[in-house]
Amino acid sequence: MATNFSLTTLFVAPVSQTTLPSAGSTQDLTAGQIGVFDNAYAVTATPGTAPYFYIAQGRENTYLQGSKRSDKIKGCSSGYPCNSNVTEWYKVGGCGTPTNQIIQIKDWTAKCGDVLTITLRAHSAYLDSLYFNGLTRSVTVQVPCCECGEDPCTEVDCDTLLDLVMEKLTGYNVTDGVIDWTSPISTAEVPDDPFTVSLNTYFTFSKVTVGDDDCVLQIEGKPLTKFGVPCDVAAFPH
Asked: What is the Cα Rg of the chain in Å?
């Protein structure tokens, strides 16, 4: 049994392009311009009549990078069903504002004297090149004992717990959810390892209010820098 596999190709069409090119080859596309080409790389208005066709998009002309091209697409020259290799196609409207991944942790239930562990698992074009199968990092917080007189408390104050967690995540002193970037915690609490990547490089930690809950830890992934991997569906932000 022979099976052909093809990776999904993502094309981002510019709003300014309202028509497809009517002449030329893939090498004649301007940066961002999208066209449909037959098996000879010539513009075609009837791709279904060719043995196969391509969708291509122009890119900035660099020494090592030409036009972006899809895999071979076999269309239908007659009615359905036909021997086409297209299983699904769709168009999605673009959004000009990128959205970072945000995780919110709330409803803290740690009790006095407990040990609380938070584990982060993250993937990105950078992290996957530094660590096998992405980054996994755990921080452990020793929940302080409660001093409530003759009537012992069952749970520690949420604000106090959140400050302790954020200190472990950031490596800096935290008071009432505000990180003091001028006051790192003692070196005894920070891993003395030059190869340990700071979580602050990839995440932003903050205390936020969600509804009636004013004690929520928000973890937001930072986007790739402008010097990062070029636009690529596989180059996920952190």
From this structure: 27
Write down the residue that tokens 């086409």 correspond to: 84
Distance of alpha carbon 223 from alpha carbon 236, whole angstroms: 9
Joined together, the tokens standing for residue 67 give: 């036009």
Span 77-118, pLDDT tens digits: 665 567 777 767 777 776 767 678 899 998 887 878 788 899
Report which residue type is found at 163: D
d(CA 30, CA 27): 8
Identify whether the C-beta of residue 29 lies closer than 8 Å to the C-beta of residue 56.
yes
Helix/strand/coil for 216: strand
Q: What is the pLDDT of residue 201?
A: 84
- What span, in angstroms and rounded, lies between the C-alpha atoms of 17 and 90? 18
pTM over 0.70: no
At residue 107, φ and ψ (nearest 5 deg) are 55, 50
Bond preceding residue 98 cis, omega within 30 of 0: no
- What is d(CA 81, CA 60) in angstroms, rounded to the nearest whole number? 39
Amino acid 225 reads: T
Name residues whose C-beta falls within 8 Å of residue 203's C-beta, 6 or more positions apart in sequence: 120, 122, 169, 219, 220, 221, 222, 238
Phi, psi values for residue 237, rounded to 5°: -65, 170
How far is residue 106's CA from residue 218's CA, in Å, rounded to a whole number?
A: 9
Q: What is the mean pLDDT of residues 29-42?
A: 91
Distance (Å, whole) CA 227 – CA 126: 11
